[in-house]
Known about the structure:
Layout lengths: L13 H4 L27 H20 L20 H16 L6 H23 L23 H18 L9 H7 L1 H20 L1 E2 L2 E6 L5 E6 L3 E2 L8 H9 L44 H23 L3 H24 L11 H24 L7 H8 L1 H9 L2 H7 L10 H4 L5
Antiparallel strand pairs: 1-4, 2-3
Helix pairs in contact: 2-3, 2-11, 2-12, 2-13, 3-5, 3-9, 4-5, 5-9, 7-9, 9-11, 10-11
Amino acid sequence: xxxxxxxxxxxxxxxxxxxxxxxxxxxxxxxxxxxxxxxxxxxxxxxxxxxxxxxxxxxxxxxxxxxxxxxxxxxxxxxxxxxxxxxxxxxxxxxxxxxxxxxxxxxxxxxxxxxxxxxxxxxxxxxxxxxxxxxxxxxxxxxxxxxxxxxxxxxxxxxxxxxxxxxxxxxxxxxxxxxxxxxxxxxxxxxxxxxxxxxxxxxxxxxxxxxxxxxxxxxxxxxxxxxxxxxxxxxxxxxxxxxxxxxxxxxxxxxxxxxxxxxxxxxxxxxxxxxxxxxxxxxxxxxxxxxxxxxxxxxxxxxxxxxxxxxxxxxxxxxxxxxxxxxxxxxxxxxxxxxxxxxxxxxxxxxxxxxxxxxxxxxxxxxxxxxxxxxxxxxxxxxxxxxxxxxxxxxxxxxxxxxxxxxxxxxxxxxxxxxxxxxxxxxxxxxxx
Length: 433
C-alpha cells in the first residue's frame, strides 16, 4: 500500500481547495489508538504544492489576464495557460478522494458525508459567484433570486466531487494490484462510468438539434433590447448554436447564466480581439448573449477529469515504489496527450467553455505530468524549501480563493474609508484610487 499520511480536514472543499480529507472520512471515527509519531508516515507534500501552484496560477491569470492575452482564457477554441486552472483543481479532487476513502468502514455514512460536503460547497458557490458580491467599487451587494447565477466554479467542483466520491465509495473491487493493468481489473466500474459520461456528452453535443433562440439585455435607460439568433443546426460547436448553451438555456434559464461570456473577445465580437472591446459594426446577434462556462453539459466532462484524478490517486495507494508510480503516471499522461492532439487534429477542437473531450484529455494529461514532476522533486528528492510558499498556499487554498479570487478582501478593504468612499486604504497605497 502507499506510504503517505492522510491529513484530517472537515472543509467542505477540502479535496479541491484545501488539505486532504481525513483517512476515516468515509465512516465513523475509529476508536483505535492513534499511531505514534514514529509510526506515522510522511505526508504527500506534492499534492499541497500542486494545489498551491494552481491557486497562484488562478490569481495570476485573474489579475494579469486582461493585460496579457496569453494568460487570459481562450476566447473560444484553443487552450491558454488560464484554461488549465479548472481542470487542475478537478484533477486534485480525484487524487485527494482516493486518499480520503482509502478505507471506508461504513459506505452509507461516507455517502451521507459526501453529499453534505457537496451541498455546503455548492451553497458557498451560490453566495460567492451567484452575483451577491457584485459591486466592489460601488460597495453594493445583493442579488435578485430571479437572476442568480446557478452554476460556477465552486458549484462545478461540488458536482464533480460528489460523483467521484460516490464512485470511490461504491465502485471498486478487492482484486490485488501488482501492475498497471491490474488497476483496470480493480476499478472497471469507475472506468465504465467515465466512458458512459464521455459517450453521453458526445452524443448530446453532436446530436441535439439547436433551434433559433432569442434573448434580451438592458440597454441605456433600462430599455430592454431583444436579439434573435439563427441556428437550426446539429453538431455545431461555435459560440452561438452549440448544444451546451442550449441545454443551459432550457434547463437553468437564460437569466441564470453568466453574463460576461468569454466569446465577447472573439474577432466577431470585439474590435480589440483578443481583448474586450467595443462591438464591430457587423457584430453577430449572439455576441452579448449570456453563456455559462461552468454549465450543465460541460460539467459532465468535468466529472471525467475528476475520475481521471481518481485513477492517478489509485497508483499512490497500490504502488509503494517511486519508480512504479512515476512510470504509470507518465505512461497515462502521455497517452492522454497523444489522443487529445489527435482529436484536435481531426476537428474535435480543444475548447474550455464546451469542455470538449480533447480538452479534457489534454488538460488531464498536463496535470498528470505536472503532478509527476512535483512529486519527483518534492517527495522523492526532498526539495521542500523552494516550494514552502506553494505548500502553504495549498493548505489554505479555499481561504485564499474566497478572499482574493471572489473579491471579498478588496470589498473589505474598500469598506473602510475616511468621509468619502474613494478615500480608502487602496487610495492610500496607490491602488484603485
